[in-house]
Design brief:
By secondary structure, the chain is an all-alpha fold. 79% of the residues lie in helices and 0% in strands. This is DUF1634 domain-containing protein.
Amino acid sequence: MTFTDKDLQKIIGAVLKYGVWLVLIIALTGGALYLINHGHETVHYEHFVENDQSIFAVLSETVSGAKNLQGEAIIFSGIFLLFLTPFIRLILSLISFILEKDLLYIFITVVVIGIICTSVYFGFAH
């Protein structure tokens, strides 16, 4: 059995489809946990606290918070996965273009991946 471009396109479609469903389940679970633990608290909108941390510090806190079943961390995990889903699609598209030996689309995809990685790294690194 050979691996064809159609097979990879099915995988890409499944990643997008099931990725969104997984994000929905994670976010709803985190939201329910957050409301159970913090639903009675009063929100003070007059005080805004900016989160001025690097993305790597935030991800580290999110992983440890999710391990402790903190609702806010689980919600953030879902949001992070939501952003990661199209990036995974880009990586799979790059593999598809490499298999097709389509140099123009390989170049364009590598440039887009480079821009995303650069903007995430320099946009959040302080």
